[in-house]
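[User] At your convenience, examine this fold.
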Amino acid sequence: MTIKKIAIVGGGTAGWLAANHLGKALCKNSELSITLIESPDIAPIGVGEGTVPDIKKTLASFGISETDFIRECDVTFKQSIKFVNWLDQDKHGKDNFFHHLFDVPSREDSENLTAHWLTQNDGVPFAERVSSQFKACEQGKAPKKITTPEYQGDLAYAYHLNAAKFAGLLADNAKVKYGVKHLLTHIRDVNLADDDSIRSLVTKEGDDLAFDFYIDCSGFESLLISKAMKVPFIDVSDQLLVNTALVVQVPTDKDSAIPPYTIATAHQAGWIWDIALPNRRGVGFVYSNNHMSDEEAQVKLDYYLGGNNPELKYKKLPMKIGYREKFWHKNCVALGLAQGFLEPLEATSILLTDFAANFLAERFPSEKDELLILEKRFNHAMGHAWKRVVDFIKLHYCLSDRQDSSFWLENRDPNTMSEELKNKLAMWEKFIPISDDFFSQFEVFYLENFLFVLYGMKYKTLLNNIEVTGSEERILALKEITDNLMDNLPEHRALLEKINKFGLQQF
């Protein structure tokens, strides 16, 4: 049987990312159709407002203008995540912080400057020692100039964005450019065939809609892969302890400075994200309700925001932490929140959705007899990716030396870590991490990501008889580059205002 009709169930960022990836890959096949079915009654969750640099490549591949994207989606530039108070305040000072930067040195410089930092102990933060972007972030600079072409930069960057508007931009692009059909209705039932594959979808109007292949982007409801097909869920809340978020949108002054990074501030039982868009901040108080009551969480969020403000409306989001045992089953693939969710740290939700949708589109089945082999390939790759992302998120918690609550003490319990993570940490006590420590192309966080977190959190690697040569020359060269960038890069909000007025240069 030839696969000609594809249904994507659910809109939002996940659904429309999938529509664009599949539309781009399959649009030359005139016999194939893609229909996105979206309920008009379900508003998007809209908390995934942070991205990673890979999203630039994705948007450019869809033919979306960066200027249009910035103008239409309330975009600001993101160059880092600034982690505040993730270490003990008595040992490291109040408001201690480190940066997980996006602009990274070459592998040779990374090894050399990391060794220098570990052996010299000169008081310079690790991120500042290896990248000019540290000062760019701390001085509120943009990563590029108005004369820099679209999707290029003097420094690497991603974006903060309005998730609802982003979904709308993706929707328009998929419909206009790739001919994706858009059906607004509620799915009332899912009919399975004798082999447990999906035969059809029943709408609330009673229409029976049959397709050849189905993409489940129905969010936490996981209408197809979970409710209908009964694919089990792997709970990893024994490793990642946070399970609830209070989210709020906070209006800001139109002239206020915009930090070019996400702020992630640790607290007694979790952390707070703070993302600045041009006219508001998106703030989320992430916590474990096994270590802090909902009432206490609200009080602490009030305190973070400067006191109780009755005009601010908090929304509570329970978080089911884990992922599907299988992401592809029969003729159905789950993407986005239907595939799984860990927590908002490091913007993993959009990252994994984009990664999985692209991976699916690059080798999409054309015939039914191809399903089984591609199912095995997809599940193997995505299973590995999810496990390694769990390890990377866990790294932030298990390296903390905070002593102020059972939450932080439990996070350092080896029983809450995977064997893979424990083995890597044991190795990195003796050796500086290198790229060969990461064995698979299906890891979405790599060497430099780990270095920024490990040494930002002052992990101890004991170097014996190591000779560091040439580092002083590289440090002087980096300083010259940094000084030049600080003199020439504009202030963040100033650049955004220029882009909205004049636009960026096309390729």
